[in-house]
Design brief:
The structure is a single chain. The chain is of the alpha+beta class. The chain folds into two domains: about 160 residues, Trna Endonuclease, Chain: A, domain 1, CATH 3.40.1350; about 120 residues. Helices cover about 35% and strands about 30% of the residues. It is built from eleven helices and 15 strands. Strands 3, 4, 5, 6, 7, 8 and 9 form a seven-stranded mixed sheet that branches. Helix 8 runs antiparallel to helix 9. The relative contact order is 0.10.
C-alpha cells in the first residue's frame, strides 16, 4: 500500500509486518472471490467465464453490485499495463451479451435479481499490485465506470485494499447545473424545500472526498466508493430518508432523527436510517456521513 506501514504490537515492542504480493495471480483472485461481497459490495457470479470462440477470452470474475450493476473484475499479481484495455475489451463483450449475463444472474441469484440488472451502469474493477500514473490518466479518458484497486497482503492473514482511482461512467452534468435544474423543476411543484434539502445532502455526500460516484435507481439514489455508503430516497412531503453503512449499535439513536432498520426491508443498503427535515439536520448528520464514507 502506498505509504502505509503495518506494525504488530507485543509486550516487548513493535514489529513491522512487511507487505507482499500474492505468490501467484490465482491466489489473490481466489481470496477476493471468496469474500467479494464483504470486500467490494459485489455478489459473486462466476470465475474464469469464457466469452466464446469469437472473443476467445476468459473474464477473471463476474459479479453484480448492490445497485444491480454488472461488474467485471480483472486481477493482476503486480503491475500490468494491459489490465484496463483487457477489462474494457470484456466490457464490450458484456454489453453485446446482456441476455447471457441475465441468464447467469437468474441461475445464481434468482429471477428478481435478473429483472433488476442496471444496464446503464456496468462497472470494471481492476485489482493489481500497483498501477502507473498512465493507468490513472487512462481511466479518466473513458466513459465507463472503472475502479483501480491496489492490494497488499500482510503476514499470513491480513489483506489491504486501496482505491487508486475511481470514475463513474457516462456523461454527467456538473452538480451546479443539476442543482439549478432541480431548483427550476421544484419551483412549480409542492415540496420544493425538500428538493433543496436533497441538493444539500448531495453536496454534503460528494464533499466527503474523492472518488464518490452517484448511481440513480428508480427507488433510490446511491452514493458509492467501491461500495455504497449512502442511499437516499426520493424526497417525501416533510422529510428525506438516508440509509448509511453505520452499525446502529454504536450510535446514540435519537427518535425522529436516527433509527435502527437492521432486519427491516427497504430499498437501498444500510442499517442506519437518518431522517432529515431541515438544513440543520444535514449538519447534525455530517459525522454519520463521514463514518459511513470511511467504512466504504
Amino acid at each position: 500500500m502506498s505509504g502505509l506501514k503495518l506494525f504488530q504490537t507485543t509486550k516487548s515492542g513493535v514489529t513491522e509486518v512487511a507487505p507482499r504480493l500474492a505468490e501467484v495471480e490465482a491466489d489473490g483472485q481466489g481470496l477476493i472471490e471468496a469474500h467479494m461481497e464483504t470486500l467490494l459490495g459485489v455478489r459473486f457470479l462466476a470465475s474464469e467465464y469464457g466469452t466464446g470462440p469469437v472473443h476467445g477470452g476468459r473474464i477473471d470474475s463476474l459479479g453484480l453490485d448492490e445497485n444491480g450493476s454488472p461488474v467485471i473484475l480483472e486481477f493482476k499479481r503486480g503491475v500490468d499495463a494491459g489490465v484496463i484495455h483487457q477489462g474494457l475489451f470484456y466490457m464490450a463483450w458484456l454489453m453485446d451479451h446482456r441476455a447471457e449475463f441475465e441468464h447467469l444472474v437468474r441461475d445464481r441469484l434468482g429471477v428478481t435479481a435478473a429483472s433488476q440488472v442496471l444496464w446503464s451502469g456496468p462497472r470494471l474493477i481492476c485489482i493489481a499490485g500497483d498501477f502507473t500514473r498512465y493507468d490513472v490518466h487512462a481511466v479518466r479518458e473513458h466513459r465507463r465506470s472503472i475502479d483501480l484497486v491496489r492490494y497488499r497482503l500482510f503476514g499470513s492473514d491480513l489483506l489491504g485494499l486501496e482505491t487508486v482511482a475511481s470514475v463513474s461512467g457516462g456523461p454527467q452534468a456538473p452538480r451546479r447545473a443539476r442543482r439549478q435544474a432541480d431548483a427550476r423543476a421544484a419551483a412549480d411543484v409542492p415540496g420544493a424545500s425538500m428538493v433543496e434539502l436533497a441538493n444539500a445532502v448531495d453536496e454534503a455526500l460528494h464533499g466527503l472526498g474523492d472518488g464518490v460516484n452517484r448511481v440513480e435507481r428508480k427507488q433510490y439514489r446511491a452514493y458509492q466508493r467501491l461500495r455504497n455508503f449512502a442511499c437516499v430516497w426520493p424526497p417525501q412531503r416533510s422529510k428525506l430518508l438516508v440509509y448509511l453503512k453505520v452499525d446502529p449499535k454504536y450510535v446514540d439513536l435519537v427518535p425522529g432523527f436516527t433509527r435502527d432498520v437492521s432486519g427491516l426491508g427497504h430499498h437501498g443498503t444500510g442499517d442506519l436510517e437518518v431522517q432529515l427535515r431541515t438544513a440543520r439536520d444535514v449538519e447534525r448528520a455530517q459525522d454519520l456521513f463521514r463514518a459511513s464514507y470511511a467504512a466504504a
